[in-house]
Design goal:
With 532 residues, the protein is of the alpha+beta class. The protein is built from 15 helices and eleven strands. It has three domains: 149 residues, Beta-Lactamase (2-Layer Sandwich); 157 residues, Beta-Lactamase (2-Layer Sandwich), CATH 3.30.450; 171 residues, Hypothetical protein af1432, CATH 1.10.3210. The strands form two sheets. A six-stranded antiparallel sheet has the order 3-2-1-6-5-4, sandwiched between helices. A five-stranded mixed sheet has the order 9-8-7-11-10, sandwiched between helices. A hairpin with a 5-residue loop joins strand 10 and strand 11. This is HD-GYP domain-containing protein.
């Protein structure tokens, strides 16, 4: 931060953070950044932002001759950009955009002096900015930013004594690779003797990340020692999510658990695992006792209630203004969790349909259901092991359950034969393509048909039906092909004895790089060895 902006008071920073968060409420912007201008240099410094990924935050400083400042100095008004390809000046602010980055940018003037710059991005639900409707809302926020700057004036910078110029050593540029998305979530493992082993199976990574971001925002807007979330109506043990700026001592973690359980409905899991994250895990843990609590019930349309709770160490009640801020953030968190729950119910519905299809085939192909379910379970584990996104994991799960439904369109007497003629073998090899016919009227939210079609392609190009090779084979298809082969090896048939797991592992390792993706083979072997 520039010298004249280092002395920003905490009340001013908090007020500015509150004001730019209104961009989400009023304009639907999922990201916003506020820059203040240093009158001595003309550069703009970032003072508050929200919504940007931790790995791709907005730039800290905008130089005086930066193209975006030149653009806004020329415009001298709010600028709506829904098609950024005509504005290369905005490219540095488009990093990390999943689709097209859309902008609403407002220069902020006070009595003719350019004081600040407000950059908003990405309207919610992939929408666009409507200048006629949203400019007045943005200007109202800018006016309040000016009032805040006048209410908390920034002291002028005191010139530092000019030190002697040091010798300049020219160093090569540092190369800093962006961390993977998983690095956004830093998990503190609870003490082994204090809590059961942390199991994150019931909370998808996107849920975790969204909660960490929401909890961090809450702690900035409403100072709190910790924020915890307990998900309700779970069919499996889901961890209690706990966020804090500083690490919590073991005693404080127990307090969080005790207070959460006191608010939980009767019959809830009395000993849930804990998944914790702290902003500065390297610092000394907080100690003491919580003196002030604020429980928040996130009510869902279906009747469920997720429990959010804020904790303070000091005996200071949450003011009405702070409670209003908590409600605003909680509303967004609750909406997101409700949408995730709805998505999970859709997934279960597709699984139910898949199981019903398999059950209908048990009379003709008795082994199909068991084989398909075992393949799906291990494929799901392997997809998670290689860090596929949640949607991709679900696509693999459903595709693996249905990967052999094309055999229902074949003569089952052919499938029972120990040896096939070349003509019969060619017909059997059509079952991935036949699956497309069988499933074409089921509108899956994922490309299930594409994954199933290619689940017999080989890494070296020797598979079928299209002879795809290497990375050209969809990842889901590669996973199912490997897992299905392993499951077939360890399963007994009327014509072949089952291999032992060790023999099957040796066989898939032998075929790594020939029939199977060698990276997936290594990951599957790790999963299998962990179960021995």
């Amino acid at each position: 931060m520039l010298p004249s902006l280092r002395s920003l008071s905490d009340p001013l920073i908090q007020r500015l953070s509150q004001l730019i968060y209104r961009c989400l409420e009023d304009l639907g912007s999922t990201k916003a950044a506020l820059y203040l201008r240093d009158p001595a240099t003309g550069a703009f410094e970032l003072v508050s932002h929200y919504g940007w990924p931790r790995t791709l935050p907005p730039q800290e400083r905008i130089a005086p001759q930066d193209p975006v400042l030149v653009l806004m100095a020329r415009e001298r008004r709010s600028l709506t950009v829904n098609d950024p390809k005509n504005y290369p000046e905005l490219k540095p602010f488009s990093l990390g955009a999943a689709n097209v980055a859309r902008f609403h940018i407002s220069p902020i003037y006070d009595r003719g002096d350019w004081k600040a710059l407000l950059i908003q991005r990405d309207p919610s639900k992939g929408g666009v900015y409507d200048a006629a409707r949203q400019d007045p809302l943005a200007q109202a926020i800018c006016a309040e930013i000016v009032l805040a700057l006048n209410a908390f004036p920034i002291p002028a910078a005191q010139p530092d004594p000019e030190p002697p110029a040091p010798a300049v050593e020219e160093l090569p540029a540092l190369r800093v690779p962006a961390p993977p998305s998983g690095a956004m979530v830093q998990v503190e493992a609870p003490e082994a003797d204090a809590y059961p082993a942390t199991e994150t199976e019931g909370v998808v990574p996107e849920q975790q990340t969204f909660f960490w971001e929401a909890a961090s925002l809450l702690c900035q807007m409403v100072p709190s020692a910790a924020v915890a979330l307990r998900l309700s109506e779970t069919q499996e043990a889901r961890p209690l999510l706990v966020y804090s700026r500083l690490p919590l001592s073991a005693d404080l973690q127990k307090e969080v658990l005790r207070h959460i359980l006191a608010q939980a409905p009767q019959g809830a899991d009395a000993d849930p695992p804990i998944l914790a994250r702290s902003e500065w895990p390297e610092r000394e843990p907080r100690t003491g006792h919580f003196a002030t609590l604020l429980p928040v019930l996130l009510e869902e349309e279906a009747g469920g209630e997720n429990l959010l709770m804020l904790f303070r160490l000091e005996d200071r009640p949450f003011s009405m203004h702070e409670q209003d801020l908590v409600r605003q953030v909680s509303r967004m968190l609750g909406f997101y969790l409700q949408e995730v729950g709805l998505h999970e119910r859709y997934h279960q519905a597709f699984l139910s349909v898949s199981h019903r299809i398999l059950a209908s085939a048990e009379g003709r192909i008795p082994s199909l259901k068991t084989h398909s379910i075992h393949t799906a379970e291990l494929s799901r584990d392997l997809a998670r092991k290689v860090d596929l996104p949640t949607a991709a994991v679900e696509a693999v799960s459903i595709s693996a359950i249905l990967h052999d439904v094309g055999t229902l369109l074949l003569d089952y007497r052919v499938l029972d034969k120990p040896r096939l003629t070349p003509e019969e073998l060619e017909k059997v090899r059509q079952h991935p393509v036949l699956a497309s016919t069988f499933l074409k009227d089921l509108y899956f939210p994922f490309d299930v048909l594409h994954i199933i079609r290619h689940h017999h392609e080989h890494w070296d190009g020797g598979g079928y039906p299209d002879g795809l090779k290497g990375e050209a084979i969809p990842m889901g298809s590669r996973i199912i092909h490997l897992v299905e082969a392993y499951e077939m090896m360890i399963s007994e048939t009327p014509y072949r004895a089952a291999k032992t797991p060790a023999q099957a592992e040796a066989e898939i390792q032998r075929l790594a790089g020939i029939q199977f993706d060698p990276h997936l083979v290594g990951q599957l072997i790790q999963i299998l060895k962990s179960r021995h």
